[in-house]
Amino acid sequence: MIENDLVDCMIALPGQLFYTTQIPVCLWFLSKNKKADGAKGYRDRQGETLFIDARNIGAMIDRTHKELSADDIAGIADTYHQWRSSKTLTPSPSPEGRGEHKLPLPLGEGRGEGEKPKKKAALPEKLLSYARELRASQTDAEKLLWKLLRSRRIAEAKFRRQHPLDNYILDFYCHEQKLAIELDGSQHFEDNAKNYDEKRTEYLNQQGIKVLRFDNRQMLVETEAVLEVIFNEIVAKASTLTPSPYPKGRGGQETLSQLDQSPSPSGRGARGEGVSYQDQAGYCKSATLADIEANDYVLTPGRYVGAAPIEDDGIPFEVKMTELSQTLYSQMEEEEKLDAVIRKNLGVLGYGE
Question: Of residues 137 and 339, which shows the higher confidence score?
Fold first, then answer.
């Protein structure tokens, strides 16, 4: 079947998609005719097979089950259509931010090329320690937003979480864009908290940092609307929507109604002219029959797509090691306590040492 050039595309899906089994599934797309078809817009794909590794796409909906969203499915489909098509397609970030096509930065912003590194003043250890504690005890809303922001998943912007800045700790911060995102719990609606947030925002604005503020309910219930605001801010698109610093104006009706004409951060744009298919390390690869033969005719997508580049999350190695070591030591202590309880119970049952 392989030598007869019938395999058109192989897609490895994530595990835990089904309730009856956690075994991952691989989709096979077969085609008896890979020749160019101008009427359908297909290019000549003879001797080629597309491999897509989608195992890291999707989100856990509970402890044991993962789900692919409509955007995830559309992104995978767009990749296949781009590869098969003789035409180019609208720029659309591929699933989980794997796309190669970077959206433009706001006017006057750059990615730091050619800049001389500036010496930073040392941050107080107390502030760094507090940032570590916050990072380890994130709310559900913060966990969700971090999952969507990390690894440059929105417009190629690199965010850091619980980022210390002078005397403050920012929930999420993108240095390239000078953009801070704050997620507020109900305590931020109190007068004292409002005054503190106003002074904090004023100070950050003086440092050239734009602050977008949302509450936890917005993040959990109006997720896509929040992403639209962040996306529009990053790519400097005209947008009439600006997050209100406080509860007034935070409602979803106003938010959603003003987003109908906005571009989607999830890559759901209509097809048109602009972008052709490109291999993406860790996600997709167009392999030849010679490549497949060299791999002993194994059709596992992961073997062909390779590994994705490791994205620096901005957390220093020393900080990571400190956090991981503390976690390990606490787990070892808990293990000793559980061992003692087990030994005691065994002794009570007459099976002591």
Answer: 339
**DSSP summary character for residue 165:** E
Confidence (pLDDT) at 126: 54
Q: Residues 144, 223: contact at Cβ < 8 Å? A: yes
Q: Where are the alpha helices (DSSP H) in the chain?
A: 70-84, 125-136, 140-149, 191-206, 216-221, 223-234, 252-257, 289-294, 301-305, 317-348
pLDDT given at position 36: 92
Q: What is the pLDDT of residues 193-249, one digit of tens each?
A: 788 888 889 999 998 899 999 988 888 888 888 888 888 888 763 343 344 444 343
DSSP annotation of 211 reads E
Query: What pLDDT is stored for residue 259 in this prediction?
Result: 37
CATH level 2 (architecture), domain 7-99+275-305: 3-Layer(aba) Sandwich (3.40)
Task: Tell me how long the chain is.
Answer: 353
- Among the ranges 92-96, 99-103, 130-134, 266-270, which has the highest mean pLDDT value? 130-134
Domain boundaries, the chain: 7-99+275-305, 125-257, 317-353
Please answer whether residues 216 and 182 qualify as being in contact, where contact means their C-beta atoms are separated by less than 8 angstroms.
no
Q: What is the pTM of this model?
A: 0.46
Phi, psi torsion values for 247, nearest 5 degrees: -50, -35
First to last CA, the chain: 62
Sequence-distant (6+) residues with CB within 8 A of 267 are 71, 74, 75, 78, 92, 93, 94, 95, 99
Angle at 301 between CA 298 and CA 302, to 5 degrees: 100
In this prediction, residue 312 has a pLDDT band, given cuts at 50, 70 and 90, of low
DSSP three-state, residue 207: coil
Q: Which tokens sit at 16? A: 């835990």
Domain 125-257: what homologous superfamily?
A: VSR Endonuclease (3.40.960.10)
Give the sign of the dihedral formed by CA 77, CA 83, CA 85, CA 87.
Answer: positive
CA distance 296 to 139: 47
- For residue 129, what are the contacts with CB-CB under 8 A and spacing of at least 6? none
β-pair partners for 170? 163
Token digits of residue 105? 């930065």
